[in-house]
Structure formats: structure tokens, C-alpha cells
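User: Please fill in residues for this 209-position structure.
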């Protein structure tokens, strides 16, 4: 491979939400520390209820220059909601995000659990509310109990396989994620990666408001 062709773009994304299990505090802040130290911009999809409980961390995410997206309010499967229910839930999260940061998260949305990302009904409901769903190419499964080293190896391997424009899904609360981020960034940069915000990827550039 020539040097030019070995260069590729990667967009890291983090879903910030209340996990359905006990978790330690401060992980999101440590992820932000790691991203900041490496000057890596990312996207954070914010659950409204999480934002309401973590307004200061939410503000820091915005202040650090990351892209804010909407990850619903109650983290229900969008496929289970009525048209009106989907709209109410999405707007509720939007209001929480705007209240905490002054930033309008539109048009960026990520369906909880990815449920609905291929559903015309869900996508039409999101579009009517001003959103488009952002899925992923690399599912880190960082919640699944990997060690930090194991997670680092997994994400690096899968991102190299996904290639240019890879969108990587991680979460804001698993402790191994905060430990693994600096190594993931270092190894992928060594392999030719440039980290960009989601809205800088050519596939999404026309979407940005
Ligand atoms: Zn989620």
C-alpha cells in the first residue's frame, strides 16, 4: 500500500446514557480527558434522562468541542413507540440537551440499541422531528466485559477492517472504555487514521445544518 492510500478517516461516537446496571462514577469525564489529551473530536449521543442528571458533564462535552446528538429520553426501543410517542420522547431529550448546553442536537440521532435504524416508520418519524439516525460500522460491545487491552485490540482490528469513514460505537460509562481510548487512538493513528467528527465525514457533510 502507498502511504496515501493507507490514510483513512475514523469517527468515534459515544452513547451517553444510564446503563441498566450498577456503574462507577467519573468514566465519562475520563473518556473526555483521554480525547482531550489526544486532540480527538468525537460525537456524543445523549440520553435526555442522563443529561438531566449530569448537566455539568454534558456542558463539558459541548465545551470540549464534541458533536452533540440525541439518544432519546427514555432509551426505549423506537420500534415500540407510537408516532406521537416517538415525537414526544425525542423532543423531551432535545429540550434537556438544549437546556444544559444551548446546543440544538438536530439533525443527529442514534436509535437506542440500534432498534429501528432500518424501519421506514421510525426513520420517517425521526425525519419529521428533524433528525436522521446515525448507525455504526464498528460495534465495540464495550459493555460486554472485555478487558481494556482486549477492547483496544478488538476496536483497532475492527476499525482497520471497516476502513475509510468507519464510525465506531462506544459508550460513556464502561470503565474499560476510558482506559482503552488512548491506546485505540495511538494505534490507529500509527496505522494512518485521522480522527474526525462525524459531521466531517463526506457521507454526512451535506447533512450538517
Ligand atoms: Zn444507548
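Assistant: Residues filled in for all 209 positions:
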Amino acid at each position: 500500500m502507498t502511504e496515501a492510500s493507507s490514510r483513512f478517516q475514523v469517527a468515534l461516537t459515544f452513547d451517553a446514557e444510564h446503563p441498566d446496571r450498577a456503574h462507577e462514577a467519573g468514566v465519562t469525564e475520563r473518556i473526555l480527558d483521554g480525547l482531550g489529551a489526544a486532540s480527538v473530536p468525537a460525537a456524543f449521543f445523549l440520553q435526555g434522562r442522563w443529561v438531566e442528571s449530569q448537566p455539568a458533564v454534558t456542558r463539558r462535552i459541548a465545551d470540549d468541542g464534541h458533536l452533540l446528538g440525541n439518544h432519546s429520553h427514555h432509551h426505549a426501543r423506537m420500534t415500540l413507540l407510537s408516532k406521537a410517542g416517538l415525537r414526544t420522547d425525542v423532543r423531551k431529550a432535545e429540550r434537556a440537551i438544549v437546556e444544559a448546553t444551548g446546543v440544538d442536537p438536530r439533525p443527529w440521532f442514534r436509535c437506542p440499541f440500534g432498534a429501528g435504524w432500518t424501519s421506514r416508520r421510525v426513520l420517517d418519524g425521526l425525519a419529521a422531528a428533524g433528525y436522521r439516525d446515525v448507525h455504526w460500522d464498528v460495534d465495540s460491545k464495550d459493555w460486554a466485559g472485555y478487558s481494556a487491552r482486549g477492547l483496544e485490540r478488538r476496536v483497532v482490528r475492527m476499525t482497520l477492517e471497516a476502513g475509510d469513514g468507519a464510525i465506531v460505537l462506544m459508550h460513556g460509562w464502561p470503565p474499560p472504555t476510558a482506559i482503552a481510548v488512548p491506546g485505540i487512538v495511538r494505534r490507529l493513528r500509527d496505522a494512518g487514521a485521522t480522527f474526525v467528527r462525524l459531521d466531517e465525514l463526506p457521507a454526512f457533510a451535506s447533512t450538517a445544518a
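For context: Strands lie at 8-16, 43-46, 67-70, 108-109, 132-133, 138-139, 166-171, 193-195.
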